[in-house]
Amino acid sequence: MSYQDFKNTHLGNGYDIDDWFGDQGLTGEYLVKLKNGSYKLVKDIVEGDVLSTGNTVASGMKKDDYFIDVSAYQPEDLTDICNASGTRNTIIKVTEGTGWLSPVATQQTNTSNCVGYYHFARFGGDVGLAQAEADFFISNLPSKPRYLVCDYEDSASGNVQANTDAVIAFMDKCKQAGFEPIYYSYKPYTLANVYIDQVTAKYPNSLWIAAYPNYEVTPTPYWGVFPSMDNIRWWQFTSTGIAGGLDKNIVLIDDEVTSSSNVEEEDEEMTNFVARNQTGDSGYVAVVNGRVFGIGDMETVFQLQNAGAKHLNLPDTDFGRFIDSQSRDAQEIKQAIADANAKVVEAIEKIKSTSVQDALGKVTIKGNLEVANEG
Question: Which tens digit of pLDDT belongs to each residue from 26-41?
Answer without folding.
Answer: 344 556 677 787 877 7
